[in-house]
Design brief:
By secondary structure, the protein is mainly α. It is built from 10 helices and 5 strands; from the N terminus they run E-E-E-E-E-H-H-H-H-H-H-H-H-H-H. The chain is globular and about 55 Å long.
């Protein structure tokens, strides 16, 4: 972790994201890395003193977030794709975390019973949806604030949901808010995130506010927005993202994109 609380992943995986360094041939000293070691960054290198590791960035291929998709399907088609993706996700993965709310959010006839731990979360997500329907940016900030840090792990479920909402708003080129309101939303929620939740979650929320994320989230969302990849492939990408983080982010996609067509 850098001194400014930015998190860096040194990864054996081949799935890019805005906070990852992927190695084709991992250096031997990578085995000496442990969680929480501080890194020093420059334009040309990343140095982790405790592990005696120097990563030369001059030979690195820099990953760029895929461009925001154009054109995006009609709102009606986006909602249909979103519904199909939710159906596929629930068919291939037992819902965990906030994903147990997906049938309820999608308005299925058989709504799951909400226990005392999920009812408050459901109400917070409903406030997010209402704020988006009414275009009330300050109400949305308050709703986000109530979800920050809610849940377990390095990326609590509430944070993953916020990531999904922000990513959905930015990559769908939503016109709900003015550019000035979007700036206010980003600055306010990021200021709180770096104080109130994990550094990893805060970095994830920061990236989402700029329309970036792990490629699995981007591929799934862009598929919902454009139809490519199709819904089953989108669901597979989400099911592969963390233990429950993909489902939590999908709840955010539903909140951002799934309001009924008037």
């Amino acid at each position: 972790m850098g001194e400014d609380q930015r998190v860096l992943f040194l990864s054996y995986q081949k799935i890019p994201g805005p906070w990852s360094v992927l190695f084709s041939t991992p250096p031997v000293s990578l085995k000496d890395i442990s969680l929480g070691m501080k890194a020093t960054f420059s334009e040309e290198s990343i140095r982790i003193e405790e592990a005696d590791l120097l990563i030369d960035l001059s030979i690195a291929a820099i990953w760029l977030t895929p461009a925001i998709p154009q054109p995006v399907f009609s709102r009606k088609s986006v909602i249909a794709n979103l519904q199909a993706t939710v159906n596929s996700y629930l068919a291939i993965k037992e819902p965990d975390g906030l994903a147990v709310l997906l049938p309820h959010l999608q308005g299925y006839s058989k709504k799951p019973a909400l226990d005392e731990t999920l009812q408050p979360v459901w109400e917070k997500i409903q406030k997010i949806r209402t704020a988006l329907q009414q275009g009330e940016v300050k109400t949305l900030v308050k709703a986000f604030s109530a979800l920050l840090g809610q849940g377990r792990g390095l990326t609590p479920a509430g944070d993953d949901c916020i990531t999904g909402v922000l990513l959905g708003l930015i990559r769908s080129s939503s016109q709900i808010f003015t550019p000035l309101e979007i700036y206010y939303l980003k600055e306010t929620i990021l200021s709180e995130a770096f104080q109130r939740t994990t550094a990893l979650s805060a970095c994830q929320i920061e990236a989402a506010a700029e329309g970036s994320a792990d490629l699995r989230l981007i591929n799934a969302l862009d598929g919902i927005l454009t139809g490519s990849p199709e819904s089953t492939a989108c669901a597979i990408q989400l099911s592969d993202y963390g233990h429950s983080s993909g489902g939590d982010a999908l709840v955010g996609f539903v909140a951002a994109l799934g309001n009924p067509v008037s």
